[in-house]
Amino acid sequence: MSSKRNAVLALGAHFDDAELGCGGTLAKHARAGDAVTLYVATRSGFGEGARSDATAAAEGRKAAAVLGVKLIEGGRDTFSLRYEDAFVLELRDLVDKLKPTTVYLPFTGDAHQDHRALARTALSAARHCPNLLMYRINWHDTEEPFVPRHFVDVSATMPVKLRALRTHASEMKRTKGSWLEWVTQRDRLDGMRLGVRYAEGFAAVRTLA
């Protein structure tokens, strides 16, 4: 990471998305002194008794504090995200306000409809941003493979990422710990390929050196 203070924006459809895909990178930005903002589009509650909006928000706020990032809550309903003008304008206003040099967004080919809608919206809203990097949230395969070509060494901040994920206690219970196992193995494997302990991989829409 550069020693220069930069504005960084991470976009998640739900509380926990960014923690899964780029939590170590966000914590690394924060440690470097960058101004990191996490925008979460939905209230993130779902299912009868699975996770309420209030529980999701409380857990998400704790996770943001662990990562050391500023949290902005979008307040939309879960499963309601659409690639449409109103949403593009909302995100464009946020991008214009923050002027980020780097935007992290979900993978456009993700299996979850909210993730895909946010990703497409972000590509339009942040089209003038010099660095656009897509992260992977889950392990589900789709017709479009996720192929990371940009990697960040998160060896020093992997424990922070895992602590942030553990704050999502409702999801930890629902997934029976499979989240932590998956991200740990994935980031460890990417790290082994690159000669470091842990790495997060991104599909680069574009980067400016």
Note down, in words, how this protein is organized:
The chain is of the alpha/beta class and 209 residues long. It has a single domain (7-206), classed as 3-Layer(aba) Sandwich (Rossmann fold). It is 43% helix and 21% strand. The chain is built from seven helices and seven strands; from the N terminus they run βαβαβαβαββαααβ. A seven-stranded mixed sheet has the order 3-2-1-4-5-7-6, sandwiched between helices. α4 links the parallel β4 and β5 (131-135). α2 runs antiparallel to α5 and α3 packs across α4. The radius of gyration is 16 Å and the shape is globular.
Task: Show the helix and strand layout.
Blueprint (H helix, E strand, L loop, with lengths): L6 E6 L4 H15 L3 E8 L10 H15 L2 E7 L8 H14 L3 E5 L6 H13 L5 E5 L14 E4 L4 H9 L2 H7 L2 H17 L4 E8 L3
Parallel strand pairs: 1-2, 1-4, 2-3, 4-5
Antiparallel strand pairs: 5-7, 6-7
Helix pairs in contact: 1-5, 2-5, 3-4
How confident is the prediction overall: mean pLDDT? 94
Shape: globular
Number of strands: 7
Helix fraction by DSSP (H/I, runs of at least 4): 40-55%
Q: Please give the CATH architecture.
A: 3-Layer(aba) Sandwich
Domain tally: 1
Total helical segments = 7
Give, in order, the helices and strands: EHEHEHEHEEHHHE
Query: Can you summarize the main beta sheet?
Result: 7 strands, mixed
Q: How many whole angstroms does the radius of gyration measure?
A: 16 Å
CATH topology: Rossmann fold
Summarize the structure.
With 209 residues, the protein is of the alpha/beta class.
